[in-house]
Amino acid sequence: IAGLALPPAKTARRIAARTEAMFAAGVVEEVRSARARHTFSSTAERIHGLQDVTALLAGGITLDEAIRRMETRTRRYAKRQRTWMRRLPEVRVVDATRDAGAVAGDIAGWT
Asked: pTM for the whole thing?
């Protein structure tokens, strides 16, 4: 099994950019609209970022705080994934910062 890995700092930058993009694209309105139409299950309530947007909509936190919390929770989740994958002997981690051809060559060579 292959797992692609980025250095933690690069992962953090990507998470920050993706979080900003989600808010710019209207995630707050999407959650507001979904909440008006549906009741979420306890499982759905644990979706990454939903707690933060819900707290923002309730007036409990600011937009900047919601963004910061979502980024922090997502970085922590990414770290847990890296830690979990290191414990699996069948997983081979590939440095995803390299050229895509080199990464594909490594993976192809494992079979």
From this structure: 0.78
